[in-house]
Amino acid sequence: MTSPMRRLSPADAAAYLARFAGEFARRGKRLGMDADPEVLAYGVAGKGAALFPGTRCDFAELADERGCVFVDGDLVVDAWVENVGGLAFVAGSLITHSLYNSGYLVVAGDLYATRLCGEGERYGTFVFGDAEVASAVFSGNHHFDVWGNCRIVEEVADARGVTREPRDGMRSWAAEQGRLSDELAHRRREPRPSPVTEASSIEPPPPPPPRSPVLLELERWIETCGLTQREQLASLRSVWLSRLGPAERAEAGLLIRRAINSKKLSRERDDLLAALGDQA
Fold it and tell me: How distant, in Å, are the alpha carbons of 56, 58, 93, 121 from that of 262?
């Protein structure tokens, strides 16, 4: 893709995503899940987001270690799109031959892909519009939810050993397909919010206060503890709950929601979040 138009602080990113508050407030029809704008606005370690213009290109790598990636419009990719463990938000539609996602990908428009591979349960792929996919492989309890209509011609769920080769294999396959047809490349969802192109159109709220040492310690622990999500839940309840003060609990809840996203543990996670709120 092209260079970003500019970088957004977490506050700027939250203001940008506020235009889509109605969609974020809804749940998907396929799994009944929700998408969390605060995870996207916060970015990686509180670094916010890089705002890219909508574009048509040959390939796109969405993961950015400096923060979340926002695409301000449609993303039309003639070969392949990869989001390897990153956070990404597409304000328009995503149209491509091949999509690989092992991170958190939210598409505000429609998703059209010939091949889709979703890997891992930490985040997922969420589409506010419609989704049309010819062939999809989901591995490691990957979450794929769609707010509109969803059509997958061929689907393999809970694949084992199937998704080790896709990134190279899907790249090679996509490169052989040539450019997207004009009919597919120009498909658009209407109505949708108008893209933001001018910095002056965003009025960010005041900058957030400095983060507490306990929150920084909790974030490092979640990223490096090496425990299963069930084990993390037990430790969060027995060790961390009592350490979090009233001013820290709201952000701690976001960190916990982002880390504990297994569908099997959703009730236990929500019970912990409720306890966190009760003690605030």
Answer: 34, 34, 27, 6
Integer-rounded Cα Rg, in Å, for the chain is 19
* 33 CB neighbour count, 10 Å cutoff: 16
Domain residue spans in the chain?
Answer: 6-200, 213-278
* Cβ atoms 71, 91 nearer than 8 A: yes
Of 116, 108, 62, 66, which Cα lies nearest the Cα of 84? 62
Say how many CA atoms lie within 13 Å of 162 toward its Cβ: 16
The DSSP letter of residue 265 is: G
CB 107 within 8 A of CB 148: no
Round to whole Å and give the CA distance between 121 and 111. Answer: 20
Amino acid at 82: E
Say which residue the tokens 């294999």 belong to. 169
With CA atoms as reference, report the closest residue to 34 among 122, 102, 128, 171: 128
For tokens 């979703």, name the residue: 118
Per-residue pLDDT of the chain (280 residues; tens, 9 = 90+): 667 788 899 999 999 999 999 999 999 888 888 899 998 998 877 888 999 999 999 889 998 877 899 999 999 998 889 998 899 999 999 999 889 999 999 999 999 999 999 888 778 999 999 999 999 988 878 889 999 999 999 887 765 544 445 676 777 777 777 787 777 777 766 544 544 544 445 555 555 567 788 888 998 898 889 899 899 999 999 999 899 888 888 888 888 887 887 878 888 988 988 888 755 4
Please give the Cα distance from 280 to 276 (Å, whole number): 6
Any bridge partners for residue 152, and if so which?
Answer: 133
